[in-house]
Amino acid sequence: MILFPMSKRKLLTVSVYLAAALLAFFSFFGVIYSAWPELSDSDLPVLTLEGVSDGGSYTGVISVTFSANDATAGIGRVRIRIDDADVYDKAIGAKSWFDGSEIDTSGLREGEHRLTATVTDSSLWRLKREVAVAFTIDRTPPRLSVSSFKTTVLQGDTDGLVISVNEKLSTLKVEALGDSIVCHSLPGAENRFRALFGVSPLAKPAVYKVQCVARDLAGNVTSESVLVTVAAKKFPFEVIHLPKEKQGILHNTAKITEDREIVAAALASAGDVQLWRGTFDRPAPGIDSSPFGIRRVYETGGTASYHQGIDIANKEGTPIAASNAGAVLFAGKLYVPGNTVILDHGQGVVSSYYHMKALGVKKGDVVAKGTVIGWMGTTGLSTGNHCHWQITVGGQCVNPDDWRQFSYETEDE
Ligand SMILES: [Zn+2]
User: 21 in a domain, yes or no?
Assistant: First the structure.
């Protein structure tokens, strides 16, 4: 048997030895392989970068933090570059690692740059993870153009700023007569804003500095101010005689507080979009039985202040119309104002109508200028059939007659 020189038994023995040898060989390398993560690692290290974001704008010192981990072989090296220059380069020997760096950008030209962070693991294969973000160095403060609707405003009237900026802002703050004023975007115009404010009829006549502070995305700040003169307006003094059955109303503080809470909750859903167009109309025909701002005191005591709206008196049931386009924020019964409709005209401008006999709209309705929203009555704290018409700007009661002359719109609208 030339072809089979070994006996069957010998052949079996050789095969067993061969198999054992192979098994030992692979087991040996298997053990080595698994005990030596630098060899077996096939996972990319993980890298997170914070403090600089893609598309971000920066100036001065950027505080960047980075964390990396590689559960198998560990982190070998971390390198951070801006454009082609190293700003951080460290050999690490840990599974996970966290560090930060204050990157001084004063040597960088203004404009676009690229930050690249590279982490290399400790495996034989030197596996790499790279994170790159594009960012802008901006050291130029925003340019502001600020003008006021009026340079002289009467006590109780409205004024505001129109602000144009040459770049995107992170914050825009306006302060007028000690209050911070909300800025709203002008419709259809990028980086143009309107900040309306009401001047209290109790504001001291004087020249006021209205301050505007703009901060761009990189943090550069520009401050501009305009001077506004508040001129005195003569407000008459009025003593109100309440009929016996209504005398208790002003002393029910719990009910008055409840009214205030209901109105505050309704105003919370007022919108940012301008709904009014042009000047405001009187909501009803009739005689002005009490003008805005009149200093008031109730004969029987209670709240003594000024009249916050205009009272228009006419027959019971006279239709009351929306003085401008808006959305119904509230339509219901309140304790002091009686049956009330509150309209949102957007951008902090709100009109209210009190003491109605009946309501013609419900919350959420959108109304055009002139839409009938209710009928005149004498509900709540009222001494006869009339509509108390009130306009507030950023929460400040202002003279509605001013809004019949002036629309506080800009050439953008
Ligand atoms: Zn009134």
Answer: no
**pLDDT tens digits along 163-178:** 999 999 999 999 999 9
What is the band of 17 on the pLDDT scale with cuts at 50, 70, 90?
A: confident
- pLDDT tens sequence across 378-394: 999 888 999 999 999 99
Q: What is the arithmetic mean of pLDDT over 208-217?
A: 97
User: Domain boundary residue among 211, 231, 251?
Assistant: 231
Beta strand ranges found along 20-84 (DSSP E): 46-50, 57-58, 61-69, 75-82
The model's pTM is 0.80
Distance from residue 240's CA to the centre of ligand 1 (Å): 11
What's the CA-to-centroid distance between 264 and ligand 1, angstroms? Answer: 19
- 281, 385: one domain: yes
- For ion ligand 1, residues whose CB falls within 5 Å: 309, 311, 388
Provide the residue range defining the domain that includes 130.
Answer: 46-137
Ligand 1 center to residue 412 CA distance, Å?
34
Q: Examine residue 313 and state whether it is found in any structural domain, yes or no.
A: yes
Residue 132 lies in a domain: yes
How far is residue 29 CA from its own chain's centroid? Answer: 62
The CATH number linked to 360 is: 2.70.70.10
Within a domain: 254: yes
Q: From the CA of 201, how far away is ligand 1's center (Å)?
A: 15
Total number of domains constituting the chain? 3
Per DSSP (E only), the strands in 107-264 are 111-121, 128-137, 144-148, 152-154, 158-165, 169-176, 179-181, 184-185, 192-198, 206-216, 221-231, 237-240
